[in-house]
Each structure stands twice: as C-alpha cells, then as structure tokens.
Amino acid sequence: MAATTIETVKSALRAQQIETPSWAYGNSGTRFKVFAQEGIPRNAYEKVDDAALVHKLTGVAPSVALHIPWDKVDDYADLAAHAKNAGIRLGAINPNVFQDDDYRLGSVCNPDPAVRKKALAHLLECVDIMDATGSSILSLWFADGINYPGQDSLRARQDRLAEALSAAYDRLGADQRMLVEYKFFEPAFYATDIPDWGTSYAHCVTLGERAQVLVDTGHHAPGTNIEFIVAFLLRQGKLGGFHFNSRFYADDDLMVGAADPFQLFRIMLEIVQAGALEESANIAFMLDQCHNLEPKVPAMVRSIMNVQEATAKALLVDAGALAAAQREGDVLGANAVVMDAYNNDVRPLLAEVRADLGVDPDPIAAYRRTGHAERVREERRGGQAAGWGA
Ligand code: AOS
Ligand code: ZN
Ligand code: ZN
Ligand code: ZN
C-alpha cells in the first residue's frame, strides 16, 4: 500500500477514542457467584484512577463512563476534576433504574405511576450530574419488560416509555444527547419494552435529533447481522454509539473481539466506509464489559487493542478496488478485497501508532512493569462490587 495511505490509516488510528466503563473495574460475576479480586477500586475515584491507567497505557481511552448510583459521590464536579488531574474525563452517564425493589414490574414502564415518577426523577437527576461532570451523553438502558403474556399491556407500556423518554429529552441541554440501548431479552423473558433497534429507533425519531440508538454488540439474537443495523442507522443519522463486548451465547459481556473478531471487523468496516470514525461523526465507541475471572485493567487494555486491530484492518480495505469489484459485479473479487484486509497482521502497524502516541508498543508488558497490581493489592482492601449483588 502507498506510503500516503498508510499515513492516513495511522493518523485515523491515533485519533481513535474508546471509552471504558467504570463498572468493569469493580467486582462482578454471574448470578451464581461473584469472585472478588484483590486491589479492586473501593469507590468511584479509584475506578477513575484505573481508567486513567488504561488510557496512559493505550493512549486511546481518554474517558470513563459512570453508572449512577454505583458511582455515587457527594460532588460530581470534584470527581470530574479528579479525572482531569488523572489525565482523562468523565464520559457517558448511565442511570440505574433496575436495582431497587420498586422496579420489580419495571421502571419507566411500570404500571404504578409512583414508580414511574421515581424512575423519571432519577433520569433527570442524571442530567443534573451530566451538567456537573461536563458529560454529553445520557446512556439509557431499561430492564423493563414482562415475563408472561397478559402480565401487562404491551401497548400501554410503550405509551409510558414514550412519556418518560420525552420528559428526559426535554431536560437535555443543547450539547447533550440521549442514547437509547435495546436488548432482546433479560431480565424479562417474554417481552422486553425496548427489545430491538427498530423500537429504539422509532422512539428516537419521535424524540428528535438529540436522541440516537446505542448498539450493544451483546444484545442480539444469535446470527443477527449487526453490521447491517450499523449501516442502516448510520445512513439515518441515528447511530449514537456502541457498547462493545463479545458474546458466545447471550449478554456475556466478555472482552470485545474475543469471541468473534471478524464480526468486530465487519462492524468497523461499516463505520470506516461511512466516514464515521471521524470525530465529527460523533459516534461514541464505548466498552460495556465485565471481567469476572480475568484481572480487570489488563483485560481492558486487551479489549482496546482488539478494537484497534479490527479498526486497522477495516482502514486497510482497499476502497477503490472494492468499489470497482462491486461495480463490475465481481463477487469473488469484492470478497477477496475485504478478506485480504482482514488477514493482515496489523500488530506491527499498531506498535508504530503507539510509538507515535508516546505509549509502549506493548501495553500489556508495560502494564506489568507498572507494578500496579501489586501496589493496589496492598492499598485497596475490600474493593467495591460493580453493582450486582452489592
Ligand atoms: C445491560 O444489559 C446493558 O448492557 C446496560 O448497558 C447496562 O447498564 C450495563 O451493562 C451495566 O450493567
Ligand atoms: Zn450495554
Ligand atoms: Zn448488556
Ligand atoms: Zn452486555
């Protein structure tokens, strides 16, 4: 490939930004067991510190998402200042309207108006927090749904959802937007109130241009063509961002690129081809993962490297050759262009990008050298659970 092209690829990789989630630094597990690790952050400040270390090692993770109230603090402006001092910023604010007893039958879709009011008040409180932290994204996921036919009215629940979304939307400031996540099941097993991108999209269209769809890669039925959803939403200007992670079965929240790096590449290819890697496209690339068994900071570093590798391969697709093959109806040729790019070993290229960014070409080795794991094992006793089973 021509030197100028490689320079363009490298500059795109240097500019890439990936947001890590605070909850991935806390203890997590399954409904069967949370295996506590040593050196886990005891509060939001220490989670921010771990996220800052991930940024220091990779150079491309300059923000951390918060989950409220898991990351509750007295003074959010102070937490933002702490993040700034540590070299990062606070990113998306994720309200939590699923962990209270009140939410047994749902939050904003609950049949009881008093519960709906409480849930909406929390969403609005989260916008206040955004004002204090300087965050621009309200990231919404609702556990709402029903387990049995007849349990509640599917239609009435959509009305309640629309009402709450619109009240939260109206509260957003001019530089803030709302991302609406969907998931086909869990915790509800019969019907989820936002089960798919179409439902999320329809609500976002009604709300207005500052409401967009959030695609969590773990939230689809097996076999779903996620890159198609990405392409479609991009075309409509309705793709707000991602929760990257990987899954073998359901919402596994494993490291992105671990289960299916080829799918991640196909998603990034749609992004690259739409010009949506550019900062101006305003697509939020966020991770949503839980490291139940593996140590958390290096797992996050590895995840970021996986996203970079998929992105590099997508950037290496020869767009001209691909377009020509497509024009000529050359099925095999077009597929070969894509596969050739995918089969590149992009690790040396990324090592150069890291050197340009002033970080170690091997961030995992660099992590080991920091002695961070040993230090926090001593410093932090009784780390915080990410939220579940806390
Ligand atoms: C839940 O399945 C969603 O992915 C949400 O984004 C959720 O808030 C996050 O995973 C933390 O549980
Ligand atoms: Zn998610
Ligand atoms: Zn999820
Ligand atoms: Zn997930």
Automatic annotation (TrEMBL):
InterPro entries named in the record: L-rhamnose_isomerase (IPR050337), Rhamnose_iso-rel (IPR013457), Xyl_isomerase-like_sf (IPR036237), Xyl_isomerase-like_TIM-brl (IPR013022)
Keywords: Isomerase, Manganese, Metal-binding
UniProt domain Xylose isomerase-like TIM barrel: residue ranges: 74-252
EC identifiers of the protein: 5.3.1.-, 5.3.1.14
Broadest EC class assigned to this enzyme: isomerase
GO annotation terms (biological process): L-lyxose metabolic process; rhamnose catabolic process
A Pfam family recorded for this sequence: AP_endonuc_2
Molecular function via GO: L-rhamnose isomerase activity; metal ion binding
Gene3D superfamilies, A to Z: Divalent-metal-dependent TIM barrel enzymes
PANTHER family: L-RHAMNOSE ISOMERASE
Protein's UniProt name: L-rhamnose isomerase / sugar isomerase
Organism from which the protein derives: Actinopolymorpha cephalotaxi
